[in-house]
Amino acid sequence: MSVWGALVGGFVGTLVLTTILRAASELRITRVDLPFLLGTMVTGDRKRAKALGYVLHFFFGLSFALGYLAIFSALGYAGWLAGAVLGVLHAAFSSTALVNVLLPVVHPRMGDPSTSADRVALLEAPGFLMLNYGIATPLVMLVAHVAYGAIVGGFIAM
Amino acid sequence: MSRDGTVCWLPIPSLDSASLFGSMLDAEKGGHFALAPDEPFEVSRRYLTDTNVLETTFKTSTGTARVIDAMTLQLEPDLAPFRELVRLVEGVDGSVRFVWTVQPRFGYGTETTRLSTRAGVSVFSSGNDAIALCTWDAGLASVGGGAVTGSFTVSAGSSTMLALAIAHQEPLVLPSRREVERRLERTVAYWRDWAEARPVRGRYRDAVVRSALALKLLVHSPTGAVAAAATTSLPEEVGGERNWDYRFSWVRDSAFVMEALLGLGCRDEAEAFFWWLMHASQITHPHLQVLYRLDGGANAKERTLPLDGYRGSRPVRIGNKAIDQRQLDIYGDLMQTAWLYAEAGYEVDREFGDRLAAIADLVTEIWARPDAGIWEVRSEFEYFTQSKMLCWVALDRAIRLATAGHIPSLHVDRWTAAARDVRAFIEERCWSTEKRSYTRVADGEDLDASVLLGARLGYVDASDDRLTSTIDALVGELGDGPYLYRYLSEDGLRGGEGAFLCCSFWLVEVLAQAGRLDEATSLMDGLVELANDVGLYAEEIDPESGAFLGNFPQGLTHLALLTAAAAIDRGGAAR
């Protein structure tokens, strides 16, 4: 288990996760766009938001991989299967708390259910399990994060 | 809010959520918050000038008192309830004894409501929702039958306050009276500042500001979507089956929304609305759904509720089956919305541009198909004239957007050819030489007020004889004083309906466009008089009784008022 393994795994895993989400979007299964959600935290310019969002997305992808490494180090075991299990937890946490609750609170352009009439949000909030972005979004998120977790786990074990 | 001081409709936490108070749709099961004198009274109402805060004045044999009702805004970072309904009672002269009852019924009256008392405060709860009833000088409360009741007397100079602190997926926040009063004051000030910031002057200033304030409340703040109306199942015919849920955002309304928001100087709302519209329609791209949920969702499954309905008008529906219909006019509405957005100086980025171009391509393929039309008829699909006119608008705006460099111009030739074909179809098959009017459907003779929309969006030139004679034919066949029926033809539903108020405003706008300003102004004056006591409109009106029909307040009617007033202003300025 090494930091370099985690970072390479985090990079490849984020690449695959992003590809799965984008493919699902192109297939009109979901409207979720994590880089866009992250980028619009910094700027309201759509073009710049997307570019900046990918940088932030990979930054978070690498950061989470280091988190995976910490967990595997504590467990004394790493592997693609363990990574996939962590990916399930990661997807559940992201869809129910991280992106559903925390993101609308800190995102300057996103509303949440308590937003009142004196404000208007530029971006719709993801909602529970990110269902606002399409009914199949939870499934897509799950698949993408399991893939990410498996890749990160696999690289860390190498 | 009914005229007798009862809160009879309140969905929580959002406009499209299940109701907490729904006695409007079922007096027994729906739940309500009543607050009124306990003796016979005369009542008058108004909004506090340029606000969304209601003042109801009760006069009794013993005195006069007023009730100020508001949903307060969270304008300061202090800890406030998730939502807060405030009812402030002030004595004006003499003394008035009030009685009040709070009887919430969660989930449209279908869920079990638990009532308990915590630290002297009555708390109603169900699932992850809860309400605390906070009262100050409102008399001793008694509990029974799932309701809390009380009575008090106010005299000149004294006041009483009741507030509902509402929690959704979080613990209750219990405010002090001082905090509630401060929020109420700031809410009044906020609305006045907001109204003052609107660039509205002229003959219809008050009606326009009221419509703007109503429109602002139909904006779903968390996403920027604009709801068609604030209610469900208020009937188009009392006792009939034409009862629909309008708490969704219709693409049909989008061009009006964009035009109105930009005209009112609401640029943040306009941008948020366009982003919402483009994001919501992404999942169905390049096809458009008739409507989308306020949170951007693309499903609105229709079902009925076991409620009596407004004055026995059943069924009570939530969700809307029209979502599955094919309506071709909405492509024109979307492209017009995009054109207005781009013209206002907003950037249409590459992704949006590609999608708009793809939608124009789609229109070239589907314009000749029959559809359900703007009125969402539940009879057989037809070749509706208005749908074809709006397909022409879609292609015309796509060409304009491409020419201005907002969207790819690769297929402009295809769009131009298709627009020519659409126009030829309309001019050959949707014109009645007998009635000298555009007809409702191709090869038909019936008329439909919706063709006015084609005119207002430039399909027919203002000086065209066909427009002039169509206006006269519509007024002759569908008109009834200031009222205009949308059509008199079969639509697949039993029963009848009232005159459509938005159609009358469309007529005002088209008359003004055609240079018939005196007629437009005269009609507009009459329409402004039709508003209810607080300046609001429903979808329809019964020409005989003057009673409103359909959901309320109706966004499209207020939007049509806004664009009609603007057209008269433009016409007056051009004179």
Round the mean pLDDT of chain B to the nearest integer and report it: 94
Number of strands of chain A: 0
CATH class of the largest domain in chain B: Mainly Alpha
Radius of gyration of chain B: 25 Å
Task: Walk me through what this model shows.
The complex is a heterodimer of chains A (158) and B (575). Chain A is an all-alpha fold. In chain A, 68% of the residues lie in helices and 0% in strands. In chain A, helix 1 packs across helix 3 (46-75), helix 1 runs antiparallel to helix 5 and helix 3 crosses helix 5. Chain A is elongated. With 575 residues, chain B is an alpha+beta fold. Chain B has 13 helices and 27 strands. In chain B, helix 11 packs antiparallel against helix 12 (517-528). The two termini of chain B are 43 Å apart. The model of chain B has no long low-confidence stretch (mean pLDDT 94). The chains are: A mainly alpha (158), B alpha+beta (575).
Concise description?
Chain A is mainly α and 158 residues long. Helices cover 68% and strands 0% of the residues of chain A.
Defining key terms:
heterodimer, A: 158 residues, mainly alpha, 5 helices, elongated, B: 575 residues, alpha+beta, Beta-galactosidase, Chain A, domain 5, Glycosyltransferase, 2 domains, twelve-stranded antiparallel β-sheet, three-stranded antiparallel β-sheet, 13 helices
List the helices and strands and how they pair.
The complex is a heterodimer of chains A (158) and B (575).
Chain A: H1 3-26, H2 34-39, H3 46-75, H4 80-106, H5 137-157
Helix pairs in contact in A: 1-3, 1-5, 3-5, 4-5
Chain B: E1 6-7, E2 10-11, E3 19-21, E4 32-37, E5 42-47, E6 54-59, E7 63-71, E8 83-103, E9 114-118, E10 121-126, E11 129-136, E12 142-144, E13 147-155, E14 159-168, H1 177-196, H2 205-218, E15 219-220, E16 225-226, E17 249-250, H3 254-263, H4 267-280, E18 291-292, E19 303-305, E20 316-318, H5 329-343, H6 350-366, H7 385-403, H8 412-429, E21 431-432, E22 437-438, H9 451-456, H10 465-478, E23 479-480, E24 483-484, E25 499-500, H11 501-513, H12 517-528, E26 540-541, E27 548-549, H13 555-574
Antiparallel strand pairs in B: 1-4, 2-3, 4-8, 5-6, 6-7, 7-8, 8-13, 8-14, 9-10, 10-11, 11-14, 12-13, 15-16, 17-18, 19-20, 21-22, 23-24, 25-26, 26-27
